[in-house]
Amino acid sequence: WPVYAPYVHAINRLKKERGAVILAHNYQTPEIFHCVADIVGDSLQLAREATLVDSEIIVQCGVHFMAETSKLLNPDKTVLIPDMRAGCSLSESITGADVRLLKERYPGVPVVTYVNTSADVKAETDICCTSSNAVAVVESFDSDTVLCIPDEFLALNVAKQTDKKILTWKGHCEVHERFTAEELLAYKEADPSIEIIGHPECHPDVIAVCDYAGSTSGMINYVKDQRPSRVLLVTECSMASNIESEVEGVEFVKPCNLCPHMKRITLPKILDSLLTMSEEVTIDPMIADRARLAVERMINLKN
Ligand code: 13P
Ligand code: SF4
Prior knowledge:
Elements: H1 5-18, E1 20-25, H2 30-35, E2 39-41, H3 43-50, E3 57-61, H4 64-73, E4 78-80, H5 89-92, H6 96-105, E5 111-114, H7 119-122, E6 127-129, H8 134-139, E7 145-149, H9 152-159, E8 165-167, H10 181-190, E9 195-198, H11 204-208, E10 212-213, H12 216-226, E11 230-234, H13 238-243, E12 251-252, H14 267-276, H15 285-300
Parallel strand pairs: 1-2, 1-3, 3-4, 5-6, 5-7, 7-8, 9-10, 9-11, 11-12
The structure holds 1,3-dihydroxyacetonephosphate and iron/sulfur cluster.
Function: Catalyzes the condensation of iminoaspartate with dihydroxyacetone phosphate to form quinolinate.
Subcellular location: Cytoplasm
Pathway: Cofactor biosynthesis; NAD(+) biosynthesis; quinolinate from iminoaspartate: step 1/1
């Protein structure tokens, strides 16, 4: 990748000079994932790793809610995001005021909020969850009914794995909602040996035709462990690109969808971020303490 080399070199040099650490989500492009990231992972792993960081500066290569989670867990450190506009359709789907109304409507019902939300929303919630621990988080309550927001499809997928009544919201991931069971079945019909692996943000009809469903790291581990000869990752496109060099002999079949928010993070922007020490993530102290509690409860939950 000669075109990336000067950026990779400059970022890694500056990262050392500044004493910064780069946390990158599994959806970052291969040149970020393999060449400049210090730690890669799914949302839960990145949140857990954020509690262990020694460096005073964290550069979050991912979307804004991920950087906010790192900042919540490291209030005294500098958390930078290379493009402040890197959002998320799930995070955009709900506000703190919406959650307050839900709590009025369903008094006493525990509120589980997906980490793909703003700190404002997390502050109104009992505990956070990610795609890798959502069932365990929901099961951690005695209550028969649990609010699991804002991802409707994640909630419906969780509801299939628990006896609890799950109430939800109408938020969707704009990347995963585009996959349909019909298109996947057509691939399966053409080649029954193909393994289909999906993310729980997909519609339950899509998950029903998958051989495995799990978080982004769950999917990566499945491919590394099972070594299917042909596999279709029902998720963001960089996932296949990031692991194909590590799983020789596995053929990755399209389709995949790009997350435009994740793709806002690029090598030139990471370099600029380290050069100018921007853009810095800040959280209103009035909401930070309550939001942190929800994230910490999730991290401390044994599962
Ligand atoms: P994971 O927690 O599985 O990494 O998912 C994050 C995400 O944004 C998926 O769209
Ligand atoms: Fe949000 Fe979907 Fe992008 Fe993940 S893939 S960051 S859920 S829009």
